[in-house]
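Page 47, continued from p. 46.
Same chain as before, 284 aa.
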Amino acid sequence: MDFSAITTTKPLRMLPAFEASQLRAADFPGSTMSPFVMVDHFRMYERTFEEHPHAGISAVTLMFEDTTQEMVSIDSLKHVARFGAGDLHWTLAGRGITHNQMPAAKAGVIHALQIFVNLPPGMKDMAPDSFLVSGRDMPVVKQDGLRIRVVAGRLGAYTSPAPLPQPVLMLDATADGEGGRLALPLDVATNALIIPIKGEVRLPDGRTLKAGEAVAATNRDTAAPLMIEAGADAHFVVLAGPDDPSPLVSNGPFVYPTIEDLRAAEARYRAGEFGHCPPVPPSA
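Result:
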């Protein structure tokens, strides 16, 4: 098991209504963050973004359980979803989609991760889609001092109902007050991103991670467990998936292996092929 250097997140603040800590694939060596290309740990208090496009990726919102506000997602497929604490919303952009995501009301806070999951080259032309998974339907595993929500993918005998377009794992774990331990099996050529949300976690090499930091772990040759020791008040997320060494060329919400592919997607968007969202409900 190889671990990257500790990466410190970069702060982003958009007026008083949105604050985030950002991670990008370029923050980690080689393809060790893949298949993830961006993660924002954010808090949103008011409407921040207008309708915007995505292509070549999935745009995923993982809502934490301390969220006190709901979010509304509206996309160019005419899908309207309302979701809150503990839920998962997944936008499969594929060849192109536009969406608008905003707080459902004007009180409370949305505390979440926004995750861009890269689609392999052969899947970037998929038809777009979006779906919602309620936190009530996610398996919860209690073991070794941890409460682990299986948000996406499979942990042992527990499988999230999320109908994933590709094999990834998303775990949302909290310690029970006395600390805990996660032994997560990882296949060969699999990467895992460890993101503390609160408190501290310790790696097998003795390093400690705290909120605002992250590490990528890679299994290169043989299947082996990823070992994480969690502090008493720790809350952390693990994102894992197959290593994808494909080249990355990105421009904001467009991610492709070549500049030609990227320019073609941008041209499709300008030509109106991504469509437009229905009007925003008055309550949002």
